[in-house]
Specification:
With about 500 residues, the protein is of the alpha/beta class. The protein has twelve helices and 20 strands. It has a nine-stranded mixed sheet with strand order 1-2-3-13-4-14-18-16-17, with helices on both faces.
Length: about 500
């Protein structure tokens, strides 16, 4: 099939990176938060960042002018660059995002059958537009924990798996049997959102008890084995992908995703068609802007931070969510008197340094924003209709669902003016409820001044969303300017908070 390339000009940064094309690759390689964090890690390692572990002492490791990162649960990551002129108590310039999206996840006991079909029990994660999952070709990906040796002890290994194959389908009911389907599509999420996995007659390995457990009939098992709780053929497929035996698998977390590849679209490749734009968009733009910042020759007095959390779509209350101690604990370990003189060290102390740093710092909470929908324009506030391709959107809400205030807006406007990046403003209509992000959570936990913004998308929370390819570079350049000059502008007194 002939593909037309009609974009007026290629969006490319100073390092000759084609952002839209690289973003599509990133999306296709990141079907789950685990995969997204792995890909962010790989990008950081390529740019000479060093991995840290929370259980280690960082005091002797950290050095000025270098980049580091730490993960939690393999689904959240915080990366940072310590400025060459940084001392404890200086500000943090933070960009925050989240790695998760509304999806269907396989239940702990997923094996179901009906009318000679093999079905998969799934659980709804987040506030998805679940009708968009019907009739899509669905693949599976996730994290697997298995025994390295199936006969000796519990030497456990964790690996990621991506079964890049259309395995499942949630079929709609034919219109002949539901004449009103086009008027209102309603369904039972427990019993009618079940993916079909195959025909029982085609089973290669009949669903049965685990041979290893049968051989040890006197041994107590607190939970049934994976091959008992899930269809054996599915477990065998996961094991084959990992080149292990099915009986070695202790457990897994598998997520459904749209097998159709992410891609550029539109007459001029001005769109990105994909799932998980909310919020891998901000993870991608934050990642590139941070690694760009470590290559700058300019000496910096701040620490530049990228924080990508899990579980935003379900409220952020987890050990790896924004409502955890993940970010505060990392910042506290950086606000240390390591680079002060001995006299200063005795006078200051870590707690006071963190308090000083918090009031000098700034947090850009980046999550996708609502682009105006041309077929539903009446749903939007008349003067606040963000357009795809017209730059990042500053999100404002009087009820503090977003953290933007006037001083923060003035600061970001100053950064955008310097970088020549167009900005848009969004306020939800009084007739609609307003969503929220990690911004209010981080602001209330740390006291750091915060602003909410994001790139505009259509079909937010659908299995297939639409974003703008040109907006990627706009956001990267804005974040780059923020990392370079944001805290310096604050410290100069340009904006009083």
């Amino acid at each position: 099939m002939l593909r037309l390339h009609l974009r007026k000009e290629s969006k490319m940064d100073v390092n000759n990176v084609e952002y839209p094309e690289e973003f599509v690759k990133f999306l296709n390689a990141s079907p789950t938060p685990f995969h997204a964090v792995k890909n962010i890690k790989d990008h950081l390692l390529q740019h000479n960042f060093q991995q840290l572990r929370e259980e280690e002492n960082w005091f002797s490791i950290l050095d000025q002018g270098k980049g580091y990162f730490v993960t939690r649960n393999d689904s959240a990551i915080i990366a940072f660059v310590v400025g060459k002129q940084y001392v404890g108590g200086n500000p943090f310039a933070i960009v925050g995002a989240h790695t998760d999206s509304p999806v269907l996840k396989i239940k702990p006991i997923s094996k179901r059958t009906n009318e000679k079909y093999d079905l998969i029990g799934v659980e709804c994660y987040g506030g998805g537009i679940w009708h968009s999952w019907f009739d899509a070709d669905l693949a599976l990906a996730g994290r697997v924990i298995y025994r390295k040796d199936s006969t000796e002890g519990y030497q456990l290994e964790t690996k990621l798996v991506d079964l890049k194959k259309p395995l499942l389908k949630i079929p709609t009911l034919a219109i002949h049997l539901d004449r009103d389907v086009n008027q209102k599509f309603e369904f039972d999420k427990e019993n009618q959102l079940l993916p079909i996995a195959g025909l029982q007659a085609k089973q290669v390995n009949a669903d049965a008890h685990c041979p290893a457990q049968e051989a040890q009939s006197d041994t107590f098992f607190s939970i049934k084995s994976v091959v008992e709780r899930h269809h054996r053929d599915l477990v065998d497929m996961v094991a084959k992908e990992l080149e292990i035996k099915s009986e070695q698998i202790e457990d897994f977390e598998l997520t459904l995703y749209d097998h159709k590849a992410s891609c550029l679209g539109g007459l001029h490749d001005e769109f990105v068609f994909s799932g998980r734009l909310d919020n891998l968009t901000s993870c991608f733009t934050g990642m590139y802007s941070l690694t760009d910042s470590i290559q700058e020759g300019k000496d910096s007095r701040c620490v530049k931070v990228l924080a990508c959390f899990d579980h935003e779509e379900i409220g952020s209350s987890s050990a790896q969510g924004a409502d955890s101690n993940f970010l505060p604990s990392v910042l506290e370990r950086l606000a240390i008197p390591k680079w002060h003189s001995q006299t200063d060290t005795e006078a200051l102390g870590e707690v006071n340094l963190m308090k000083l740093a918090a009031r000098k710092s700034f947090f850009l909470s980046s999550d996708v924003a609502h682009a105006v929908h041309p077929n539903y324009a009446g749903k939007y506030e008349v003067n606040h209709k963000p357009m795809i391709g017209s730059g990042p959107v500053i999100k404002i809400n009087a009820n503090q669902r977003y953290m933007t205030n006037t001083p923060g807006l003035v600061l970001v406007k100053a950064l955008a003016d310097r970088a020549k990046i167009p900005l848009q403003l969004f306020v939800v209509s009084n007739t609609s409820p307003c969503g929220s992000t990690i911004g209010p959570i981080i602001a209330s936990k740390t006291g750091i001044q915060t602003l909410d913004l994001g790139n505009p998308v259509l079909s937010m929370h659908s299995i297939r969303e639409t974003g703008g390819s040109d907006d990627l570079q706009s956001q990267i350049e804005l974040f780059r300017e923020f990392y370079q000059n944001g805290t310096e502008i604050l410290e100069s007194g340009y904006v009083k908070t």
